[in-house]
Amino acid sequence: MVADLVAEAELTPAVRALADPLRARIVELLATEQLCVCHLTEELAVAQPLVSHHLKVLREAGLVESDRWRYWTYYRLRPDALLTLADRLERLAASAPTDTCERRPCC
Amino acid sequence: MVADLVAEAELTPAVRALADPLRARIVELLATEQLCVCHLTEELAVAQPLVSHHLKVLREAGLVESDRWRYWTYYRLRPDALLTLADRLERLAASAPTDTCERRPCC
DNA sequence: GCAAGATATCGACCGTCATCGATATCCGGA
DNA sequence: TCCGGATATCGATGACGGTCGATATCTTGC
Known about the structure:
The first copy, chain A, is of the alpha+beta class. Chain A has one domain (2-88): Arc Repressor Mutant, subunit A. The first copy, chain A, contains five helices and three strands; from the N terminus they run ααβααββα. In chain A, strands 1-3-2 form a three-stranded antiparallel beta sheet. The longest helix of chain A has 17 residues, at 2-18.
């Protein structure tokens, strides 16, 4: 129980990070190949500081990691973070009661 | 491509719905058993209109469905919605490139 | 129909966050 | 060490959304 609550607390930032449409698109793009900020800026057609900001949110949520190479900072997805999230959702779905008639008496 | 974008657009509301901590707790509670609003209000220790509001968001996101019975409205999880989401995340994780060296030339 | 309980809706307030412009920091080449 | 390019940070602004109180709607029993 407590462990579940802790696990959920650790997962929430990732879900919140994915909830923004622009960040969702970034994750989609990074699911194909690792990209640097300038690629993402061009692909998303938004200002570079905005891309950096959202990448920071994704990085702090553990969804992406970065890697400097010469001038550029390459970002790539961390698949394990997505898999952890997917597993959590599957567990929730699996634990849902199948018997729709069983109801706790009310108030 | 277009189908993927559409699918993503349909999934985003569910992710956004799960991003709120109170709604996440509601989903957790409903993963155990179906509950009416008064149960949730008591369990979460918040005002009843607030619970109704969040339930509406979850319902419109397709994550829960409701069922009236006498005085009360029972809510239950829709496991298929969570599974669809989990599948989407798994696909993204699976499509992530494993070769960390392969980089598109920059700018 | 009327009253009481359960739930949903509405309006207002307020904090958070996405966005933008300007600027700082970092890196590599000359 | 100086310069230019790439990225990160900062401050301000505006909008979205969570919360609360009041109230409307719906259901059931009398």
